[in-house]
Amino acid sequence: MVGVFMHTLSLYDIKHGLLGKKFSSVEITRRFLDRIAKHSHWNAFITVCEESALRTAQLSDQKIKNGTAGALEGVPIALKDLFMTKGIRTTAGSKMLQNFIPPYESTVSQKLLDAGAVVLGKTNMDEFAMGSANITSRYGPVVNPWSLDKKLVPGGSSGGSAAAVAGYLCAAATGSDTGGSVRQPAAFSGIVGLKPTYGRCSRYGMTAFASSLDQAGPLTRTVRDAAIFLRIISGHDEKDSTSAARPVPDFESFAGKSIKGMKIGLPKEYRMDGMSEEIVDFWRKGAEILKEAGAEIIDVSLPHSKYALPAYYIIAPAEASANLARYDGVRYGFRAEGKNLREMYENTRAEGFGDEVKRRILIGTYVLSAGYYDAYYLRALKVQKLIRQDFVSVFKEVDVLLTPSTPNSAFAFGEEPKDPVSMYLNDVCTVTANMAGLPGVSIPIGLDKQSRPLGLQLIAPHFMEESLIQVGAILEDGANFPMLKEES
138, 193, 268, 408: which one has the fewest Cβ atoms less than 10 Å from its Cβ? Predict the structure, then answer.
């Protein structure tokens, strides 16, 4: 029976199943590869690494046999297609990098390889991580495995990773979170998505969107899985000046610990206009679960959080406009023809970037221009400081905050907001953690009346991911979320 449904096992169970020789890495790798092919209509992967994955799985089986297994030996995973992978195409979901093969490895993916993980492939994503639905990719939209009568979006920008984990195409996957791009697709797809503290994981080898906000994070089926994954990808990196030189705790050891006496804050500002009443009801349910487990529930206020989204959509595009200036057709990536150098630049960027990326570059260039730098960009930085101060104050009262992950469940293709600003509202619950550099996690809490997943978010103080694991495991256990039913 384990063999038939081994693809539905958690990362933890797969890891221990391999070590206990209940099945081999080659067996489960083949199972996932078969499922990737079978469910290609979900479009979760841009590149599938079948041959290299099976070779790695064979080596892992040998290491398990001779007792030299790593922490994730033989476990099949996927990587969001903005992590540089040496010798494997990395596109960032864009035409600009459609044939780019990196000569080096990102630190996060190297840590996973060193731990013995088997990389199945590179997952689809919104172009340059700019999107909330995974519909801006050069390689087509990703379909949420929870789709029933209608095709649903999986959230973005890490929608390919979320769909791959939710649909049992891999044991776990990497994502990146700039304004919610791990937690929001996790909520839409009924899985766990954890954004670590800014600096907890190295950004070296990650395609940059907004350098002061980007952070790698795991997408997994359980909180324990996220803890295992997070420990492997965390740690200081001399190649990244923003990575923190702090010890990495045994995050997994906090899964299952009592939360008796902990104080959980409910920020009143997260009850906003347009939010689904079902989400509000599940928010109350989450608070009751934690209260019954011995936590104290406290109403708190984050008065400047309402300004987080507009400030984010000034700071992030500003940084993006600077980061994406390197894509000019000269050194690498797509190049269009032109009569002269200037025309070549113009044609390359006009053809190489999609509409959403162009939109954000234009916004970013505008707010950094001489006439508007003070009026927009500097004001946004001041707002960011106030947001950080709000969190510092509130964490003197509580240990963790509990909020909705999104204002609504996943929407169907064709039902997405046509106005870009309305689409940006999908990040309204998650963006504050990025603006403050705080860790956050989305936990699936239940299904709405349309059988679409809903998630709750936990936010903790800087470098207190263990609190997210501790509280998240209790919330997960109490929610008893009905995982996606999938045939063998």
Answer: 268
